[in-house]
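Dear colleagues,

I hope this message finds you well. In preparation for our joint manuscript, I am sending the CUB domain-containing protein (Pristionchus entomophagus) sequence together with its predicted structure, so that both groups work from identical material. I would be grateful if you could confirm receipt.
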Amino acid sequence: MRRLLLLLLIEIVHGSCPAGFELVRNGQCRGLHSTITRLYNEPEREAVSRCKEINGKPVIIHDDVDQMYWRSVLNGSNYDTRDALETNNEVHWQSWSNGNWDNGTDTTYNGLLLGLVCTEDSDYRDIVWQWSDGSPIDYTPPGFEDSIGNYLCGDSYSWYLRPNGFWEDNFKRPPIDVYCTTQLEQPVNDGCEYDPEDGVCYRIGASANSWQDAQAICRNMGADLVSIHSKEENSFVRRMAVAYGAVNGVFLGGTISGKGKEFGWIDGSAWDYDNFYPGFPIDGLGECLTMDTLSAAGQWVNVNCSSSFPVACAKKDTVPTCTSGPWTEGQIIYSPGYPYDASVSCNYVLTVEAGKRLEVHVKLLEANTCCDRLILTDNYIGGNTIANLTGEISDLTFYSESNIMRVTWQPNGGVNVRGMMITFNAFETIVLPTLHP
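The corresponding structure tokens are as follows:
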């Protein structure tokens, strides 16, 4: 018998972006958190404190991509439009007002507060500027010739990103907007130990409301509903399911949906073993598979897919790969490696009966707006683009003009995001009667 491990299925906790924040890159959410309205000697430390309220950090810039993003936020926000003109080593400002440029020294100062703070250096001898999270100052904007370490740390002066991309230490009176960055919590392997012989781990979880929900629970931990390939495995799964309280049956990964009248495993493995009760499966009773864990033999019955049972999941240590389907109506489709690895691209050609149209429901999309896309196009090739999606999306539906839709997951890294989860169905095209006068 293969050595297998059955563990209690623990729900994966996965945070989403705070309200109003944008999922930008590397699983980072960025946005406006609050506004400082009181006068502080060191507003950057107040920003650090406020960002910690949401387990975040203030604006920290390590490369050109960060710089360009925060500069676009500044220029696209509700700030006044201003340009810096440097003359005789003095900075003056031009403010756009009523269609004219008003010259003069700006006392309100327009800039995005950076997370640079005064702190002791590693030798505890000097007070120097550092990023608030302790990361190195490994980037400064083009044209910034001096090291930030050459600037004196002191009260009342903080670092700001200007609309033209410059960084300046200056004094700014409130209000001061506090922008923060948070990091999505990534689903992790919660203690599953892999068998060195086959790399399989089994888990048992609480009841799901349907077979589809059960598969979704398994996929959210990078697994599938279990497939069983020997008497020994069947006995092992049954005994351990009972040990974890699943005494009245569990969902297995077998279904006849999309496979004619023959059962098949949702993970695509060979149907090389079965353990049905005599007389089962029964036509019309249901298209999904359960194991009767109350019987010592752990025999199988087919049930309605909307039934409620605990779930039995199996996780294999495999490299994410794109599979070609075929895909069937109502089936939940995931990007390769979901939810642990979103880096593999994949095309999904979805079809329904001729004469009908197709609706795709995006149950979940988690993609970095800098890099990753989910593209829906009509027909297999040459059709119109229905949607070009990125960021965080849930529960949106899109419609084709034909009975074919091509769904393309296009990650450019897919760093620290889960990817996508979709399903599809056919719907009738309603032709309205022509009204004659």
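For the figure legend, we might mention the following. The radius of gyration is 29 Å. The mean pLDDT is 82.

With kind regards,
E.M.
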